[in-house]
Amino acid sequence: MLHFLANPGWRSAWLGGLASTLLLLAPAVAQTAPGENQTVPIEAENGFLQNQGAHPRFQAATKVSSETLAAVLQQRAATIPHFSGSFSAEGKAFPYTMVGTPPQAGGTTQIPTQIIAVSLLFEGVLDKDGEPIILDPGPVLTRIQGSPNFRPYSYQTGLTQFADAVQRAQFFKAMNPDWHTLLGAPERLLPVTIDVQAGMAKVYRNRSSGVTYAVVDTRFFLSQLNTIVQLERLRPDALVLILTNNVFLAPQADVKQCCLLGFHTAFASGQTRRTQQVQTLVWASWVEQGLFGSSIGDVTPMSHEISEWMNNPFGVNVVPAWQPVGGSAGCQTNLETADPVAALPNAGFPVNLDGFTFHPQIEVLLPWFARQGAQDSIDGALSFPDETLVTEVSRPCTVP
């Protein structure tokens, strides 16, 4: 297991994007003595995060240069399988690149998957028995591997994995019936433990359920991931999943600016025999049910990011400016299929496997962004698996 002890004096500069932070070269990590002051988790009631103004947030970023992107689009880069297409809206053509092969081609594309379990140990914070607090995803790894992200479930588009079911839904009338894009059985890479010093996080304990969770400084956490991605043996043709357990990010660990639950990114990761390697990566946290109400729990962040990665793996797909369903504030111009409904209280889709109910997130489909109504999607739907969640195409939004 890799083990990091963080030095608060060593922190990467914030360079305007998640991927930028991930790509900074990290210096050696210093060893520091444990703090003298011992604390316990802050007691919090049900609904604490929402009462503090916290909202579930997700982000996408890319550090792929125009030259590297050209190599990707021309199939000259070592990376995940991908195909390109386009749609027309507002008198313009909007090209996109997605994971897999063209729907009309049929066949199954299987993407290798690598998982890195990242635990966080909070210096000076002890549980009721006087033991150090560690948020470890290890206990839920088996459940994650048995989730709809990897296990087949019966959807209207067939017996398959969740993200593939969504892809088949949006290309249902255009695809070859045997077309699939699947994640391979996850390969577990070396697990990592990060030592979190005082001031870099706030640790809470739900008074009713006893669940412990943490709000961690965003820059601090990303600086640690920067080191992790350099030390692990990552495959450019694989999706890399960084997993945490009840870990949420916010600037300066401020609960009022919480909570980032996941992101996906892409970056140039080296060259072999003059071939540029491009790595795609997802970070997502397992979320204990109830911390964010009934809609977000367990694999919601992971399903959110995997579907968005599948639709926008290199973070460069641009669409007409849109605002989230329900008229929430803010405009986006990227092809992020989960963001438009992420704040809705009924965006989780219950899937029962082996007696456990998972909550992958409902996604909007390509016709929603294109504002063309019924096109190639199943039943002319704009969202899936719940086709009734979204019934109108995206609303225009003015980007400053």
Structural class: alpha/beta
User: From the alpha-carbon coordinates, what is the Rg to the nearest angstrom?
Assistant: 21 Å
Sheet-strand content, in percent, reads 25-35%
Alpha plus pi helix count: 8
**Percent range for helical residues?**
10-25%
Domains counted in the coordinates: how many? Answer: 1
Total DSSP E strands: 26
Unreliable stretches (pLDDT < 50, length at least 5) are 4-35
**What's the mean pLDDT score?**
88
Give a quick account of the main beta sheet: strands, pairing sense, barrel closure: 10 strands, mixed
Query: What is the approximate shape?
Result: globular
- What is the straight-line distance between the termini? 46 Å
Structure characterization notes:
The chain is of the alpha/beta class and 400 residues long. It has one domain. The chain is 16% helix and 34% strand. It has eight helices and 26 strands. It has helices spanning 18-23, 48-51, 66-73, 138-145, 162-170, 218-231, 300-311, 366-370, and strands spanning 2-5, 42-44, 57-63, 77-78, 82-89, 92-99, 108-111, 113-126, 132-135, 153-155, 158-160, 180-183, 187-188, 192-196, 201-206, 212-217, 239-245, 247-250, 260-272, 275-286, 318-322, 332-334, 351-353, 356-358, 363-364, 383-384. Strands 1, 3, 4, 8, 9, 13, 14, 17, 19 and 20 form a ten-stranded mixed sheet that branches. A four-stranded mixed sheet has the order 2-15-16-18. Helix 5 (162-170) packs across helix 7 (300-311). The protein is globular, with a radius of gyration of 21 Å. The model is unreliable at 4-35 (pLDDT under 50).
